[in-house]
Amino acid sequence: MSEISSHHGARASRSRLPSKRFLATAFATLVAAAPTARGDPADDPSTAAADAIHKRVLTLDTHVDIPFEFMSPQADPGKPSKLQVDLPKMREGGLSAAFFVVYVGQTSRTAENYVQARLGAETKFAAIHKMVETYPDQIELARSAADVTRIRASGKLLALIGIENGFVIGKDINLLRHYHDLGARYFGLVHAGHNDLGDSANPVSWLDKGPEHNGLSPLGRQAVVELNRLGFIVDISHASKETSMQAIELSRAPVIASHSDVGALNPIARNLDDETLEALARKGGVVQIVAFDSYLWVGVVAKHKAQEALRREYGIDDPFAVGNLPPDKAAEYFRRLLALDQVWARTDVKRLVDHIDYAVKKIGVDHVGIASDFGGGGGIVGWKDASETYNVTRELARRGYSEGDIAKLWGGNLLRVLANVEEIAEKSRD
Ligand SMILES: [Zn+2]
């Protein structure tokens, strides 16, 4: 997809990677135009109480995508920017911490593409490191649960790193250690499209013909063992149900879904059904409920039909990528796709909290968290970017969650998992 990348000024060497960020930028622009909850009367005492809680708790968003040009003048998070998450927006919305995500899109599994995937990952790691090196008095990289506590006490913002798509290791398990050394602390096994580690919840028609491994491959099983040994959290978001259940079963440490929603409320393959949620909780893990419109809500049938018709018109199979469209056609496609959001509005913070409520009732408040997927298609009415993060806490408070529960949902649970994963890794080294 070189055409799309060059259209957006990215380097040609990244041309093989599907441009999720294209989608993200387009969506961000649209969501920015949506009405927000800012009209809430500021003197409402319940709002003030919620905002006070929001300031006291660690607010950790487990999934923030970054573009390949992150930390270039076009996408500098240290300045007010078009990014949904930058440092000024984090401060404005009271978002203390974010997992910045090293994502590469799935392509066909050739030696050349393995190299490209690794280069893509290295580019994003370098950009995140550059962010914390450029703004050391504002944000610091946390490499452990203890780091999070220490940095939080210093008053600085926090960056953590997650990996999305095990394709970044190709078939080389040794690369896990390398990425862990670079600071990554969770590892998403797959993305859209199967890879060498396991099956995806969303096979891609131009890559996949039905299930490939029926869950984890032997290499995927090896990867889970190594992730446990290194102190890496295993992340099942985007994995098929079989892959997820097998990873949860095999892992000696708690597993997370870094950005997924509840299947019972919106039964799509990308969400977690009750059985998976329960298995995740039994292992001590956490589902990070994500502010992603189409995962939260099946929406009106007419909107889905219109989206499908549009995809057909442009010959696009994969709702997460744009296929091989030339740049002008891709831009036109996105303009028309976004226009549909103006006819049928995106969902809102209330529905996000409906999913949180459901998961809390099903598996308990110790096993639920929050993610945005900003930069990767996330963003809903009321939480369009990091500057509106306080709206999530307001809705949680409105539904009766205590400060203690809000603290768990907003990062306490995830920190517990990270500490637990570290402990299990340490023991395995003894
Ligand atoms: Zn994702």
TrEMBL record:
Gene Ontology terms: biological process: proteolysis
UniProt GO MF annotations: metallodipeptidase activity
Family matches, as InterPro entries: Metal_Hydrolase, Pept_M19
PROSITE patterns for this protein: RENAL_DIPEPTIDASE_2
Pfam families on file: Peptidase_M19
PANTHER family: DIPEPTIDASE (PTHR10443:SF12), MICROSOMAL DIPEPTIDASE (PTHR10443)
Official protein name in the record: Membrane dipeptidase
Species in which this protein is naturally found: Methylosinus sporium
